[in-house]
Specification:
It is a single chain. With 224 residues, the chain is mostly helical. The chain has 6 helices and no strands. The N and C termini lie far apart (75 Å).
């Protein structure tokens, strides 16, 4: 029965379905070398399962918790992906852009700033660990088309969420315009009612004066 919660729930459902479908398609069709096929399973399968669980959270009405968990699982997925190649050749590094946009869309602009700072620090730590040899370097046998596929998916994800943002803004603007028109209509009707009441009050005053005069005339005559 809450219009705002219904709108947020619809937005979360759309985002969750997008992540479920896009992650599954990337897992199935991404051009990854056969000896590395276990990596997407380790990273993407838990993410998809988490998104399915969060859809149930939306149905239960835990919208704020779901929004925070969606952003966290996105960050976790890209961070885990960088453990398999901690340098700039890893396409997972660009995925943090999706985290920031998602935080801004379903949480607040302050959350977007916080997650952007956190993601930048995460990138810096990962690169430093890769340079120090703590984490392995990116796999050189990954075909270039795999990088293109990952970047294309990130661009599509960002475009989808930005379009949802713009649609949300348009809906809010349309609602505000409708409420403004309705308020002007009510004010116009109220002014019309006030004018009618003033007219009726004036008629009532004239009627009262006439009746009073008609009643006084015989009384004056009788008195005379």
């Amino acid at each position: 029965g809450d219009e705002d919660k219904t709108r947020v729930a619809a937005l979360l459902n759309a985002i969750l379905w997008f992540f479920i479908v896009s992650a599954s398609l990337y897992w199935i069709f991404a051009p990854i070398a056969p000896e590395m096929m276990y990596r997407p399973a380790i990273i993407i399968l838990p993410f998809v399962l988490a998104m399915l669980v969060l859809k149930q959270f939306v149905n239960w009405g835990y919208l704020k918790l779901t929004g925070n968990l969606v952003v966290f699982f996105l960050w976790l997925m890209f961070t885990v992906a960088t453990f398999y190649g901690a340098n700039y050749h890893n396409p997972a590094f660009m995925g943090y852009l999706v985290v920031v946009i998602c935080a801004g869309l379903i949480l607040t602009w302050r959350s977007a700033i916080g997650w952007s700072v956190f993601s930048i620090l995460t990138n810096a730590v990962m690169l430093k660990l890769g340079q120090d040899g703590v984490l392995p370097a990116s796999d050189t046998v990954t075909p270039p088309f795999a990088f293109w596929s990952a970047q294309t998916l990130y661009i599509i994800a960002c475009t989808f969420m930005l379009s949802q943002t713009l649609r949300k803004i348009d809906d809010a603007r349309t609602k505000a315009e409708h409420e403004l028109k309705e308020r002007k209509r009510l004010e116009s009707e109220r002014e019309k009612v006030i004018q009618e009441l003033e007219t009726k009050n004036a008629e009532l005053e004239r009627f009262t004066y006439t009746v009073s005069h008609d009643l006084k005339s015989p009384l004056i005559t009788i008195g005379g």
